[in-house]
Amino acid sequence: MNAFAKALQALPVGRYLLAVSGGRDSMALLHAFSEVRPSELSAVATFDHGTGAAATEAVDLVVGECLRCGISVVAGRAPERLGDARPSEAVLRTARWVFLRAVAEERRAVVVTAHTRDDQAETVAMRILRDASARGLAAMAWPSPGVVRPLLHLSRSDVVRYAAEAGIRHVEDPSNRDPAYLRNRLRADLLAAAEAARPGFREELLVIGRRAAAWRTEMARLVDTLGARRVDRAVVVEAGALVSLSRDGLSAVWPEVAGRAGFVLDRRGIERVAEWTPRARPGQRIPLSGGVVIERTARTFVVRMAAGAPGEGPPQDAAGLP
Predict the structure, then answer these.
(1) Which residues pair with 177 in a beta bridge?
(2) Separation of alpha carbons 247 and 257, rounded Å
């Protein structure tokens, strides 16, 4: 049994939506999944970012392959380009995940991506360069709700070998070599140079991601002991438990609490709320970026979207979803 089959068979029984871009990795995922678990394949979702002819060709390839194999496919496209400007990686990622989440919700399916260990190493490196916290450094080693990454323990070379042996067609998007994007610079230059100078450097990045994910697991357990609970569109946590923590403890706990409400606190927001918490009085609140508000009640702190704020209600967090 090949590594792809073993990875896919390890998934629990369910309904799955494959995220397929038309590139080599995701086309290999489509080929393997349709052979190993065809009855659980709800549909394939493919998204044209509108970045050029190659992106459209890739979507056409995915649609054509699905039609040939009798697989349900849903194609989406970015609503518009931002003038003549090149869209950032964050903009492309957000647009793609808004589409994927919507299709998955409609299909009541779990999204499956083709991310590999190389993608994880690159993501950890990007987070380090951006001075991310431990939460960010976990990257894809920390599970995202409604998403599975069965190939995350496989290398890109494993995918290349599988695709070659199976004769899988794919489209190479020129944007994947565009040095304007940080991930491409890391992949082509920085990580290659670091690995040459320090063999095993990529594995060290993966270890950092695993350790950060373990730290997040412990932090989640701690927040559970503080009585954090979801109430409608808010997260409520006992005030007595929070105010007893140190400033450093609050800086570690608040991002986890906010994350459960679907929000990401930036570094400035974390500092503000950690300083405010011990002196907050019932009825007081602190507004944060993105329309988030934290309110002190008689016995609790409540994290929610401010009434009337754009997009009221917890947004989907795609920060860890390349």
Answers:
(1) none
(2) 15
Q: HSE on the CB side for 189, CA within 13 Å?
A: 9
Domain boundaries, the chain: 3-114+149-177, 226-305
Domain 226-305: state its class.
Answer: alpha beta
Alpha-carbon distance 18 to 305, whole Å?
31
- What distance in Å separates the CA atoms of residue 167 and residue 28, rounded to the nearest whole number? 10
User: Mean pLDDT per segment of 10 residues, for the chain of length 322 residues?
Assistant: 88 97 96 96 94 90 96 90 63 90 97 96 93 91 94 95 95 79 84 91 96 95 92 91 93 92 88 95 92 94 76 41 56
pTM of the model: 0.86
> Which of 3.60.21.10, 3.40.50.300, 3.30.565.10, 3.40.50.620 would CATH assign to domain 3-114+149-177?
3.40.50.620
- Torsion-angle region of residue 285: left (phi > 0), alpha (psi -120 to 50) or beta? beta
Please name the residues in contact with 212: beta carbons below 8 A apart, sequence gap of 6 or more.
134, 135, 136, 137, 138, 139, 141, 142
